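Prompt: For my understanding, could you write out one protein's sequence and backbone structure tokens?
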Amino acid sequence: MKKRIFIHEVVTRDGLQIEPQWIPTERKIELVDALSQTGLAKIEVTSFVSAKAIPNLRDAEEVMAGIRRNPDVDYVALIANARGAERAMAAKADEVNLVASVSETHNRANMRRATGASFAGFVEMMPLLKSGGVRVNGALATSFGCPFEGDVPAQRVMDLVGQYVEMGVDSITLADTTGMAHPAQVAALCAKVLERWPGLQVALHFHNTRGMGLANVLAGLNAGVERFEGCLGGLGGCPFAPGATGNVCSEDVVHMLQSMGYDTGVDLDRLLAVARRLGAVVGHDLPGQVVKAGKISDLHPRPAELV
């Protein structure tokens, strides 16, 4: 029996948040609806944060109200404070994503507050979220390195995972916000987390800034992680992280894992079809590789001189 790996798609939140031009609401809804039919486990649809901070996601309520929900998919929204929690619950998000940075400097740049203050706010929100039956995921940005501070101590990550667990989150995500992770580091940190909390649902979020995205996925996989976030076409990047480039590409991750014999639950042909339309939505070329080269199973006619 093939081992099951779960793919979480973040294109309409993480992918579109950094795009300079406005992406119309109807295009976002069409994108989520198409992705809902590909077999993805989760789709992070939008973010309930300040429209001034992330202008391209100012239509969060409209997008959540307009999508056609597949009961087999969890629809997720990122939130930053109690007001965001209320908005996400009113929009009937299946899950909310809390985000704090392991790095104090990045948290202040991203959230305009200290990491401890972010966690204090999360603690205050938890009763509201739990009373509404919303699943809660705790994400840790800069888990593998900070563009301002450099190396991030593994113990600091462990301490913050512990705070999330104590709060009662349902799952966590370790995020490589600017593509600073390398495979040996990923393997070591994931092994520590899974050994300390063997029943905890852990996802990994990688960027391909320095070309190590797929290698880091494999390192996490070998350490026992079964859930990975990806972004269609390889779009995305944190607006508050200098040098950040796109996320690890969802269709490239799925292609790699399926080629290796893993069950992702994803219809790769359908996912590639959606990826081919994404360039027209954002108005520029995408870094994804499989959509350009084709699957390794896609063969070509023999050269004419050999026929």
User: Anything to note?
Assistant: The mean pLDDT is 95. The chain has twelve helices and eight strands.
